[in-house]
Amino acid sequence: MSKKNRQKNKGRKKLKRKQKLFTPFFVIFLIIVIAAILIVNLFRHDYYKISQVYIKGNKILSNDQILSKLNNPMGTNIILYDEKESIENLKKEKIIKSAKIEKELPDKIIVRVKEEYPYMIARYKKDSYVIANTGKVLDKTVNEENNNNLLKIKGIKNKPEIGKNFTDNKNLIKFIDSIQKLKYAKDIKEIDLENYNEIGIIINDIQINFGDLKNYNYKLKLLDSVLKDIENKKIKAYSISLDKGKNPVVEVEEKSLDEKDENN
Fold first, then answer.
1. How far apart are CA 176 and CA 186, in angstroms?
2. pLDDT of residue 228
3. Which residue in 38, 133, 174, 259 could disulfide with 119, CB within 3.0 to 4.6 Å?
4. How far apart are the C-alpha atoms of 218 and 22, rounded to whole Å?
């Protein structure tokens, strides 16, 4: 064998040895090692530790009470955080009807709860019933005076059944849910459902002639705006009609207008 051929063979052997270093097995191993390093750093990095918790929908339970059921999420890696266990803990509270936890990378979780609690009291013939904010009949009560803080519902059509909604009218249940979102919801004293076409509401001793349930969300927003305007102008109104066309009709005490003019 000539000298040139021997040199070529040595070169080929070296190339083969170099090629053997990067076998498919070695490449796969390298990828696994790199992926493992990235995953470990991902779970340890402060960037993915929960630093913000937003709680929405609670009116009775405080934020602290709900946080105590969430397995101390602050500082926990958002990817490893077990939201299912926290949801189960939340549902152990009788007042919580449903719960949902949403993760928003890198460090935020949103907790949405829906509570069920005594909100209204309704009379049917000689009996009185406590009704939840969801429309569900909770219990029968003997003493209405013990429930003076509850909103009064007048004119219910059928005998309430405990454990069921006080009405089969789905729009009415949605209306009850929507009315609780009013800015002035805490000031509602009474809702008259004797006639679904002429629903009456009393807010801050103001008689609201609401009309029917058509476009009720729009009318509720309009009502909120009118009540805010009355409050800002310090006018004493005794009636607001939302059933006489597109524009609300507000009746006020003349004395309050005179006092307003004098102040101006």
1. 13
2. 94
3. 133
4. 69
Average pLDDT of the segment spanning 35-43? 66
Q: Does 21 score more than 80 pLDDT?
A: no
Cβ contacts of 187 within 8 Å, gap of 6 or more: 203, 204
Distance CA 153, CA 194 (A): 9
255: tokens are: 């004395």
Nearest Cα to 135, choosing from 107, 105, 158? 158
Are both 123 and 244 inside the same structural domain? yes
* Residue 8 half-sphere exposure toward CB, CA atoms < 13 A: 5
Residue 128 sits in the same domain as residue 250: yes
* Residue 15 counted as domain residue: no
- Which of 79, 113, 147 terminates a domain? The answer is 113
Q: How confident is the model at residue 213 (pLDDT cuts 50, 70, 90)?
A: very high
Q: Is the dihedral of CA 20, 22, 23, 29 positive or negative?
A: positive
| Residue 88 shares a structural domain with residue 146 | no
Type of residue at 173: I
User: Do residues 121 and 150 touch, judged by C-beta distance below 8 A?
Assistant: yes
What is the pLDDT confidence band of residue 7, given thresholds at 50, 70 and 90? low
Q: How many domains, in total, are found in the chain?
A: 2
Share of the chain above pLDDT 90, in %: 64
Q: Of the candidates 48, 53, 80, which has an alpha carbon nearest to the alpha carbon of residue 69?
A: 53
Peptide bond into 106 cis (omega under 30): yes
CATH number of the domain within which 166 lies: 3.40.50
The enclosing domain of 82 has a CATH number of: 3.10.20.310
φ, ψ dihedrals at 231, nearest 5°:
-65, -45
